[in-house]
Amino acid sequence: MTTWRLGDPLPWLPARAGRTAPRLRVIVDNDFSGDPDGLVQLAHHVLSPSVDVRAVIGSRPAPEPQHEGTDQAAAAVARARELLAVMGVEAAGRLVTGSAVTMRDATSPLPSDGARRIVAEAMRDDVDTPLFVACGAGLTSIASALLIQPAIADRLTLVWIGGAEHPGLAAAPHGAPAVEYNQSIDPVAAQVVFDSALPLWQVPRDRYRQCLVSDAELRRRVGSQGTVGAFLHDAIAALVEARRRDGELLAETYALGDSPLVLLTALQSYFDRDDAANAFVTMPRPRLDAVGRYVPNPDGAAIRVYTRIETRLMFEDLFAKLADLAEWQAAAPRS
């Protein structure tokens, strides 16, 4: 297979369409051994020429019986490495492991390789591109990085897929737990982040649940796109099949809920660089109580809470980039 290095220009793009320097840096932090939507997000970010993916952190998902006794952060790194190998990407030391455990209290960081990489990248003075941490899982690594080096709060923006619906903005779905899944992975870490002044863009549960694709789209627009598309499609299909064996009834849609991490970073607007395709409100950041519920905090730092996600742009860009890669891999000479 012909390979290419993470951080190099995408070899299939013409010079005018992606051979210039990226506009921003991204650290990806996700639980790749859990829901396959994180693998889709990682592939999409790696295929986006406007971002320099500086690190990929493998984080633990919420504990499940089948994971007992295994290091799920290490498993997440292994799964990400598997995807990048199928893509032909040489990661060159950019894959790092987050903590295998959660924070005990709000003052004791867990100095994992992932947390240390965030600090090191944030504190660099030799770059002029903004840094985003794109997190689709628990907040252990970024919270620990904040406690290790509080100065990073002035040097990066966190984009987080997680948290429950905000009162007055949206209602929780019927039967949903009070504490949203990603927040439940490490509730203490979420408290640390919400109590900080770190710039935070939040895509809460009501928004990421709307990032739906149909089975037909997954089959025709993802699974048909070479080995990478088949890998992503099969990962989702395997999870759906496992749930079917557990008695769940058939649905025709799947939520690629981590994909807004790409939309809000790589797909920012050309003019007045920021997010122009989506809608959000900016408000004082609430605190999180011991249960994980929002507590109003009028003096809290600002938080950007997304109220609309532009799924057409997000998914059509994903489908097109997978097609570009598949076409290049099919035409490239075998090495």
UniProtKB/TrEMBL annotation:
Keyword Hydrolase on entry: yes
InterPro entries in UniProt: Inosine/uridine_hydrolase_dom, IUNH, Ribo_hydro-like
UniProt xrefs under Gene3D superfamilies: Ribonucleoside hydrolase-like (3.90.245.10)
Record's keyword annotation contains Magnesium: no
A Pfam entry, by short name: IU_nuc_hydro
Molecular function terms, GO-annotated: hydrolase activity
Residue span(s) of domain Inosine/uridine-preferring nucleoside hydrolase: 26-264
Keywords: Glycosidase, Hydrolase
Superkingdom as given in the UniProt entry: Bacteria
PANTHER family: INOSINE-URIDINE PREFERRING NUCLEOSIDE HYDROLASE, URIDINE NUCLEOSIDASE
Name of this protein: Nucleoside hydrolase
Species whose genome carries this gene: Cellulomonas alba
Lineage: Bacteria, Bacillati, Actinomycetota, Actinomycetes, Micrococcales
